[in-house]
Task: inverse folding
């Protein structure tokens, strides 16, 4: 893939870009393909999450009382803080892409670091939330042993809560991984206005993580 | 092909900074709004509707501006639209099943719940040319047949002809189908 | 797309042109295969893996049929029988049919047909293959740990309770899902972005259109399977309760989740077969396709309708009667695009110069078998008839006519069609045709019988049965042996050709782009980028006929 040295497609008379892959004719085709591929990946992510949203809606419809009462035991404040943190990280991610577009290496690095810091803050808040649930026995399914009275099937509410936020959390952790990878390349100076598609694609992924949270927050925390 | 179409804009499409800050401000504002509304104590379905409306607006802002979708190739917009539609289809149809399981009472066999039945008759009678009523009547007849066949596989051959008849009625004559479901 | 339409780019200096080795020998050593990003090598590796697992699944099928020879115990007890048919089903669906045409033949041929040097993301392609191998390893591991007895559908609540190693199989299927998604994303991007100059959407070979529709479904449906199986794994390990009524969950919800993927998956399996048949019928009857656009669009239409009909698997699963009626009605809509295809193929054959080559014999088998499979689907789609037929051998026969008589036959036909392109060798044509005929006869003896005793009430997945079904089961078992003989004959015929020396002459004279490059293709597919000026089925005969008519 990286055998860009082989003299295969000078057909268009362009100079070879360092990151031009030999099976694409032009950098524009390469970038456009990579972005389309990323969007398809995000499309499958939407459907990946849809299974859990489906479970949420079905059981909310079957046990409306449970949903109203269980949500009381989630912290709206912590959820709200995490929402703001993720929204801000989305902003810095978008600005990181903008910096890359403008070949502003310093801005790119600063914005990426801010994004990563936000991701860590999110996970720390999540940790405190989860440990509070563990302490009260608010656990999924068979593990549930909460003492507070909640009508219906609170174990299902917490199954949905943990699977949805858990899967989202896994995506945040994976996001931290790819953000570090992009940061490393940014420091190395790989990106400028002619080549920034990896930054853009990681950005798209990160925004999707934000998008999922935008729906999770009201659905789980703000039932009433 | 694809590459030729894009050869002309190698220059990245850069948005001015205030756009980013403006969108972030709007997102914060909407978050505060949805947070505040949750304390008002709206009826449940309305609260869910408002929350989803606000969340969708926020999602549209993030997708449109932060993800650059507004200025992107149409193809990428299509990908998002198709996957969201597939998701809504999944939700809609599964919920349709989950919510309609009690529609037919097993002890009454082929009959609708009484209020359903009454509603159907009402819908079928006053304006005869209404297409919605025709559909409802057709469905009624089909449901009846389906429930009949559910009674046991021994009855299957007899019931086999019924769905065809039901759908035929649905398209041809609504009042006939409506009265049929009452008379059985 | 004939040779005359290929422009050699003038900007290439003559000196650059040197001799290029074909993809099989361009790089040497085992690691050059293990880490290859060449779509052709990956296609061959997929082909080998698919054939290997087809043999595994096939042997399991033979074991199942042998056990059913008599109503009493023949070779295994009821418990082993449950594990055996699960193994057969799971291996055939997840390891054989889903990757068969797209990942092996498609991988090899798609970039060639598009005039591209490779798929859009070669490394993702490599990842997809090794993820497939990893998932397959999980499946094989279940053999060692005692097997799975849930059937390939993993229905709850039994799959939650069973003590067998279902968790490992679930993880395997979960992993295989990602292999499928990666291939789908790769193909969609490749088709959208990597077409050669002049290769417009209405000049794409129909095989490409079929792969496009397939990839669309793979990307949209497979993630739902992944999340479903993931939840089921959690259900089995920590009892999260979503599918378990003990905790207020809904076991029927599992079926919704499962079939939201698995019904489109049926079309993921059959649509590439449709594409394959479009190629076989045109090339081997030397005639342009009848109804290019309807066939192309009906592939996408099937992909769309495929998402609307999953509930017909739930007719007797306590799904609501309203949902059942709507799903039954929508199911009939599938017949429309499918019939468009079948009629178009038959119209293509009309007045064509039909050559009874091996691939063509498979294509004709397909038309016959798939029509039976499709039409019996209408019986099962009718709500009330299905109540009688559900979970009988009628269903078994129906989906074998579609999956095996459709996809696998098209797959074998495709392997014969492109064998020369893959390897540069010609197999023995006479033995090839004989094998195809044995397969056709063996298949019908095996499965047509099952329609009959299925409609008489023989339930599926039963280890024993009433005496009245004995004759039927015996005929079916003998038929399966004949089928196995035919399949092995076809395989040996292909493998025997590998011993021939040198590159044999090409016999089919197709005109889509994959025929324009060298055989076997060079490592980067084309010496220079082809420019396309005509349609994929514009055979010399077709053009001659057109000018002869005075157009």
Result:
């Amino acid at each position: 893939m990286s055998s860009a040295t082989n003299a295969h497609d000078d057909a268009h008379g362009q100079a070879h870009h360092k990151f031009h892959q030999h099976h694409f004719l032009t950098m524009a085709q390469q970038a456009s393909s990579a972005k389309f591929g990323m969007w398809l990946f995000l499309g499958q992510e939407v459907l990946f999450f849809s299974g859990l949203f489906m479970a949420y809606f079905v059981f909310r419809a079957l046990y409306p009382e449970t949903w109203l009462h269980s949500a009381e035991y989630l912290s709206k404040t912590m959820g709200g803080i995490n929402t703001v943190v993720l929204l801000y990280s989305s902003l810095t991610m978008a600005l990181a892409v903008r910096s890359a577009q403008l070949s502003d290496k310093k801005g790119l690095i600063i914005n990426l670091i801010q994004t990563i810091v936000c991701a860590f803050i999110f996970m720390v808040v999540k940790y405190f939330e989860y440990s509070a649930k563990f302490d009260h026995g608010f656990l999924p399914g068979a593990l549930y042993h909460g003492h507070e009275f909640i009508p219906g099937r609170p174990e299902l509410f917490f199954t949905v809560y943990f699977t949805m936020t858990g899967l989202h959390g896994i995506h945040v952790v994976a996001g931290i991984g790819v953000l570090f990878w992009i940061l490393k390349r940014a420091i190395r100076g790989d990106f400028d206005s002619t080549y920034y598609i990896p930054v853009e694609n990681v950005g798209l992924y990160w925004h999707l993580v934000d998008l999922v949270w935008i729906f999770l927050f009201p659905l789980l925390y703000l039932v009433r | 092909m694809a590459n030729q179409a894009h050869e002309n804009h190698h220059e990245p499409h850069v948005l001015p900074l205030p756009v980013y800050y403006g969108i972030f401000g709007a997102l914060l504002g909407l978050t505060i709004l949805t947070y505040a509304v949750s304390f008002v104590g709206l009826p449940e379905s309305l609260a869910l509707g408002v929350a989803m409306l606000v969340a969708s607006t926020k999602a549209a802002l993030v997708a449109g501006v932060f993800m650059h979708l507004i200025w992107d190739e149409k193809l990428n917009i299509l990908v998002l639209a198709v996957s969201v539609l597939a998701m809504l289809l999944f939700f809609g149809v599964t919920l349709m099943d989950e919510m309609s399981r009690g529609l037919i009472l097993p002890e009454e066999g082929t009959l609708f719940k009484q209020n359903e039945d009454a509603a159907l008759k009402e819908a079928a009678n006053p304006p005869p040319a209404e297409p919605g009523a025709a559909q409802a009547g057709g469905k009624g007849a089909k449901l009846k047949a389906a429930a009949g066949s559910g009674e046991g596989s021994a009855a299957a051959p007899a019931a086999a002809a019924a769905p065809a008849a039901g759908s035929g009625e649905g398209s041809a004559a609504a009042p006939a189908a409506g009265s049929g479901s009452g008379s059985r | 797309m004939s040779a005359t339409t290929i422009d050699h780019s003038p900007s290439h200096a003559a000196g650059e042109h040197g001799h290029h080795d074909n993809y099989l020998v361009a790089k040497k050593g085992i690691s050059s295969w293990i880490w290859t990003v060449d779509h052709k090598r990956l296609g061959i590796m997929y082909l080998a893996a698919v054939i290997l697992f087809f043999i595994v699944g096939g042997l399991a099928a033979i074991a199942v049929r042998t056990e059913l020879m008599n109503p009493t115990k023949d070779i295994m007890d009821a418990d082993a029988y449950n594990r055996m048919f699960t193994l057969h089903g799971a291996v055939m669906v997840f390891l054989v049919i889903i990757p068969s045409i797209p990942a092996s033949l498609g991988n090899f041929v798609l970039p060639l047909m598009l005039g591209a040097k490779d798929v859009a993301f070669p490394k993702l392609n490599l990842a997809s293959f090794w993820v497939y191998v990893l998932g397959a390893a999980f499946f094989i591991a279940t053999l060692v740990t005692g097997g799975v007895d849930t059937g390939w559908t993993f229905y709850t609540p039994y799959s939650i309770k069973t003590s067998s190693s279902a968790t490992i199989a679930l993880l395997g299927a979960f992993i295989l899902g990602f292999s499928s998604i990666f291939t789908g994303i790769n193909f969609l991007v490749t088709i959208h972005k990597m077409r050669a100059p002049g290769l417009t959407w209405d000049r794409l070979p129909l095989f490409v259109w079929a792969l496009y529709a397939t990839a669309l479904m793979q990307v949209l449906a497979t993630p739902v399977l992944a999340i479903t199986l993931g939840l089921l794994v959690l259900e089995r390990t920590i009892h999260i309760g979503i599918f378990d009524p003990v905790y207020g969950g809904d076991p029927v919800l599992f079926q919704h989740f499962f079939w939201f993927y698995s019904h489109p998956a049926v079309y993921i399996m059959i649509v590439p077969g449709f594409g394959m048949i479009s190629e076989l019928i045109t090339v081997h009857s030397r005639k342009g396709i009848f109804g290019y656009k309807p066939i192309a669009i009906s592939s996408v239409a099937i992909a769309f309708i495929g998402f609307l009909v999953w509930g017909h698997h739930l007719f007797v699963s306590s799904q609501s009667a309203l949902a059942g009626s709507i799903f039954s009605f929508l199911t009939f809509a599938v017949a429309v695009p499918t019939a468009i295809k079948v009629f178009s193929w038959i119209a293509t054959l009309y007045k064509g110069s039909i050559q009874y080559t091996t691939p063509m014999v498979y294509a004709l088998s397909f038309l016959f078998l798939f029509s039976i499979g499709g039409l019996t689907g209408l019986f099962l789609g009718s709500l009330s008839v299905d109540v009688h037929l559900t979970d009988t051998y009628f269903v078994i026969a129906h989906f074998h006519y579609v999956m095996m008589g459709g996809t696998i036959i098209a797959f074998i036909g495709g392997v014969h069609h492109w064998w020369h392109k893959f390897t540069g060798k010609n197999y023995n044509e006479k033995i090839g045709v004989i094998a195809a005929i044995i397969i056709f006869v063996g298949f019908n003896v095996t499965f047509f019988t099952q329609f009959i005793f299925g409609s008489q009430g023989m339930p599926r997945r039963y280890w024993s049965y009433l005496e009245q079904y004995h004759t039927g089961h015996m005929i079916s078992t003998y038929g399966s042996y004949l089928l196995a003989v035919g399949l092995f004959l076809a395989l040996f015929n292909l493998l025997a050709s590998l011993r021939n020396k040198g590159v044999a002459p090409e016999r089919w004279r197709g005109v889509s782009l994959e025929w324009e490059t060298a055989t076997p293709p060079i490592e980067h597919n084309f010496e220079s980028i082809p420019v396309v000026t005509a349609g994929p089925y514009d055979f010399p005969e077709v053009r001659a006929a057109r000018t002869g008519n005075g157009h």
Remarks:
- Chain A has a mean pLDDT of 91.
- The two ends of chain A are 53 Å apart (CA to CA).
- Residues 27-221 of chain A form a domain with the Four Helix Bundle (Hemerythrin (Met), subunit A) fold (CATH 1.20.120.80).
- DSSP finds six helices and no strands in chain A.
